[in-house]
Write a structure and sequence with these properties.
By secondary structure, the protein is α/β, with parallel strands linked by helices. It has helices spanning 18-26, 46-56, 70-80, 99-103, 138-146, 161-166, 179-190, 217-235, 239-262, 266-278, 280-283, 290-301, and strands spanning 5-11, 33-40, 60-65, 85-88, 94-95, 110-112, 115-119, 122-127, 132-135, 157-160, 193-196, 202-206.
């Protein structure tokens, strides 16, 4: 029996891009799938659009819920899914006709493909991966080498649904930053095998506003503490790999937090810097040691004088 895919698309005020996204799924060369469209309390015509698709195609399941954010919408789709694998797609993206077919080359618990970056409506570049299988401790090596590319988002992947159900994995609705990465790491920490494939059939629509990426102090601390716990689980006894991962991720997100505080008026900046310096979460944040912590503390303190 051929494997079945559950494709989950969270939908919120997506009427301008929804048709292209859904049509690309329904046009797959591989037909054994269900398409779960979760309307997260849209205020435009998105709800009506997904109902029309469900009426025309019995593979489409239309779900309507009160607005709760993208994580709650994805979780609703997980609750409904019946496929062997789950694939997430964002409602402003689209896929090539061979997208689901490309995953069939692997039986790994997590299958990761490349993607094409569409910036402001224009193709910019492709991010492709080698066709490699990772088992056990090798999975940690994949994470180290791909944290800034493949592991930040849930799309361009197929997740074995049994593992999601067995470990009750869900997207964290209590945070609005980095929840995609946390879900990926939670899943991968339970996976026995991961395979990267060379297919590059996902189109990621990125609208570049030329503004620096910004993260609040609370978001940064909350995310990094949860990321640290999952990294410890993933790397287990390999402290060197764990510290390397924490250094890469904390440096990336710290920069976004720094940019956010720098743009605040001095009065508000003082409050955020103080919060950063005295917050117990920051003092307990896993990192590469006292020097790393000291360096970041000094950098953040200097914001009071800029």
């Amino acid at each position: 029996m051929r494997r079945k895919y559950s494709v989950i698309i969270p939908v919120y005020n997506s009427e301008s891009t929804l048709n292209k996204c859904v049509d690309s799924v329904l046009g797959q060369t591989y037909s054994n799938f269900e398409l779960i469209l979760v309307d997260d309390g849209s205020r435009d015509q998105s709800g009506q659009i997904i109902d029309e698709y469900a009426h025309k195609d019995n593979r489409v399941i239309a779900v309507h819920k009160e607005n709760g954010g993208v994580s709650s919408a994805r979780n609703k789709g997980i609750d409904i899914a019946t496929g062997d694998y789950i694939a997430f797609i964002d409602s402003d993206d689209w896929i090539d006709s061979n997208y689901l077919e490309s995953f069939n080359s692997s039986d790994a618990d997590c299958i990761v493909s490349g993607f094409k970056l569409i910036e402001n409506g224009i193709f910019k570049e492709s991010f492709s991966l080698n066709n490699l299988i990772y088992n056990g401790n090798e999975i940690a090596n994949f994470c180290i080498n791909n944290i800034n590319l493949s592991l930040l988002v849930p799309w361009s992947k197929a997740f074995r649904r049994f593992l999601i159900s067995e470990h009750s994995l869900k997207f964290d609705c209590d945070i609005n930053f980095g929840e995609d990465t946390l879900f990926n790491f939670e899943f991968i920490s339970q996976a026995a095998t991961l395979q990267s494939i060379s297919a590059c059939a996902y189109h990621y629509w990125y609208f570049n506003t030329k503004k620096p990426y910004r993260v609040t102090v609370d978001q940064f601390l909350n995310y990094m503490l949860k990321f640290g716990k999952l990294s410890e689980k993933l790397f287990r006894s390999d402290r060197n790999q764990y510290r390397k991962m924490m250094n890469v991720e904390s440096t990336l997100q710290y920069s976004a937090c720094y940019n956010y505080v720098l743009m605040l008026p001095m009065k508000d900046r003082f409050c955020e810097v103080l919060k950063f310096l005295i917050n117990r979460s920051w003092r307990n944040l896993p990192d590469e040691g006292w020097y790393y912590r000291f360096k970041k503390t000094i950098e953040f303190s200097k914001l009071l004088f800029r």
